[in-house]
Amino acid sequence: MASSGSTQIIDAEIETRRAAMATFAAANAAELRGALESMGSIDAVEIRKPETGLVMIRGRIGGDGAPFNVGEATVTRCAVRIASGETGFSYLLGRDQEKARLAALCDALWQSRDRRAQIETLLIAPVRERLAKARDEARAKTDATRVDFFTLVRGED
Amino acid sequence: MYVAVKGGERAIANAHKLLAHERRGDESVPELTVPQIEGQLALAVARVMAEGSLYDRELAALAIKQAWGDLIEAIFLVRAYRTTLPRFGASEPLDTARMEIRRRISATFKDLPGGQILGPTFDYTHRLLEEPAAPLPPEQAPRETDREPTPRVTDILAGEALIEPSPEADPSDRPGDITRDPLTFPASRDVRLQNLSRADEGFLLALGYSTQRGYGRNHPFAGEIRLGEVEVEFFAEELGFAVPLGAITVTECQTVNQFKGSDTEPPQFTRGYGLAFGHSERKAMSMALVDRALRAGELGEEARAPAQDEEFVLSHSDNVQATGFVEHLKLPHYVDFQSELGLLRQIRASFEGGADASKDGAE
Fold first, then answer.
1. Is residue B297 part of a domain?
2. Is the predicted ipTM greater than 0.90, yes or no?
3. Is A154 inside a domain boundary?
């Protein structure tokens, strides 16, 4: 029981980290840079320099069946270690190496006990708010093209 | 056979300079920028990404600019670029059921759960050319709707077992990859779909059309077409979990085709599947028609039409390969041609010699 409980805690921790990494990926470089600059100087070393490569994107036959290879996408990755010892990683679509470095730094800081709250407040919350607003606006524009079918009634009665 | 010929260096260098200037066009007209192409020629960008088999809008836009608008040349540039990059691995399979939908239509169900959304479409336009400086129409009034889940149409039919299920994944089997292993026949459906997803849109369109006209008829309905953004995740070994990389735009088409049954199985609708990078609706639809046509053998149909012949379809679908072989005819073939010329002269000489001989005989 104890072990399954701790597994759940680990899983929940991974899920929160994945959600944070998704926000770093969706943020733009200026947002990452702005938040990091407002946190003052951060000691970090690159343990993997930003590197651009490819990831083969897979789909599923019929949308839900066996996987197949659709085509590749450019992806840039980076890893940094901050002075308190945490290692941050990033894997981002595209070729923006500066953004990959900033995102890895954010991932490291998010793991640090002392810095997580700052990353949450200065970066994750405002970026999520911006993304949610943009998504709602895009949905509202799209939903104006929703079809409302009505059936023409035939007959004399 | 062609041979290396020396002596053209200066002509080649000057031809490339001339190309650069002609591509630029009238210098009193502002030069196109890559963001303009990315934003305003987005469907050309989608096509280059799909057929270049590389999702990167900015690179595709740059390639279109460099290729002077020749999309096959742009696709060639993108394919060449990808060979310079290492591959980190393969993504987790996309979940198109969780797509952030921008367009979703079905020709089979009027009232499908989640609704029908036209999105940005040329459908129902009058195809009348507009004034070049026509102002933008006022923006449509936004509409707040609670988004319901949008199950795939095939999932709705699957609930009643009226449609064949998707082929199940075999966990021990990695999907085939034509960028790593040469295409062999018979090809499995995963390999065929990879080939079709990067295949020339015009070639697939013509083949799909041919099935509708009776060359391998397969009675399709557009069960569902959806366009939107899906999240991509990549399992990073060093982290031990799937990292979210961001979202890409894809277009998916599910065709529902006429039924098939057997002594042991009740008849069910069959399916074709299309999935392509970007806003690529014609491509996804054509792909689904051809995917279904290529399943003729598996479904016990007589396979006599070109669209049902996998070796014919898969060997001729790649426009970079096709253009390479067609266009290599431009390269010097002087030695080949000299030998043919010599042979023809010889045959003609013997023909004329024979004719003279028979004339002599008649006299």
1. yes
2. yes
3. no
